[in-house]
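quick one before i forget lol
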Amino acid sequence: MPEQKDLYMLKDHKKNRVLFTEDMKKDYTILAPMMLPIHFAFIGNIIRQYGYNLVILETTHRGIVDEGLKHVHNDTCYPALLVIGQLLDALKSGAYDPNKTALMITQTGGGCRASNYIHLLRKALLKADFPQVPVISMNLKKMEQHPGFKLSWGMIIKFSYAALYADMMMCLANQCRPYEVEAGATQKVIDELVAEISPYFMDKRFRQAEENYLKILAAFKKIQLNKTDKIKVGIVGEIYMKYAPLGNNNLEDYLLSEGAEPVLSGVLDFFLYSVNHSFVDVKLYKSGWVAPVKQWITRKLFGYLEHLQNKMIDIIKADAAFHAPAPFKRLQYLVKGFISQGVKMGEGWLLTAEMLELIDSGVNNIVCTQPFGCLPNHIVAKGMIRSIKNTYPNANIVAVDYDPGATKINQENRIKLMLANAVKLDKAEKEAAAKTNNNKK
């Protein structure tokens, strides 16, 4: 084994990257940025079960932005700046030995700038004098393989089930937290469920989807709620800004403090949307042909995940205590006539579909979160607002840009104006309904 400071010499010279070796798995700590608190809690536990010492960073202080600005150009996508800043902040904190630490980020492989975060991170590590730190890519396209980290099919299947359980928990939690009688009761249930279900991924119990769905539903039903009339506000946008508290300045907490109920769609929709690209490419562009066996496997996987998602939706609907999310096919149906499924850069047509689904389910108030200068989201989000309002005049949508120079107070003021408009629209709708009822009498 070479000296620790010379580890940067263990390179894949063709790609100029430091490899994460099998020896490193034994005593290295792997740091990863946070995006979805519930989902990443499950995923972190699964990865640890495979013998990796993974730490998911939950830091949120302003120093992360400053660290990102030091090492990433300020015109770069804001999520990249935050992710890189969070990882460098951790390396400089003294809590981790840089000679025994690796970093991990996801990589999509698509045309979005997110595919290039990993190269920006390696450049930042060199600039910050951490050339020996390996960067592991978590991706499904075998783009960045390391001898010490293997993303197996077994792991991918477990991640898929974890996403389903976390989606359900996130959906129910957002319907409980605004109304909980005992502050913190919802988070307590989340923590207990993560602790109870995580060991299931060490055996076959994680596959007992229906049983686990019912367990999750029963746990949330025990929370004592004081249901009052609150404004519901949907959150859509670029995937990191939509979910990560660090990215959107704790948007969910802010909406709760303003007396609103946040509504978010699950992350499995994004996975299904991504898999759906392979079908769309063949149909619309006559490209992306794959071997019949691989195509059959892809369709089977897509159908199976859809089946599991629909089972979760049916269980929530059957109980009627909570509002169930829409199935993926509903999103595909709603978007027809607005935008083509061939628009698949970044969040693509799915972002437009999420806004339409919120309105279709009675949630007219929407915050669209996007990094400043994110071209795909400015097209499929901000660019689609007028078309949506032409069809749904009561749609109350505000687009909020996030970047290093945007002040939190300005972002919150824009959201406050949207909420004020939401209250007016809600009052007008109730007065109109009351007038209609009186006329009937």
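fyi The CA atoms of residues 302 and 420 lie 41 Å apart.
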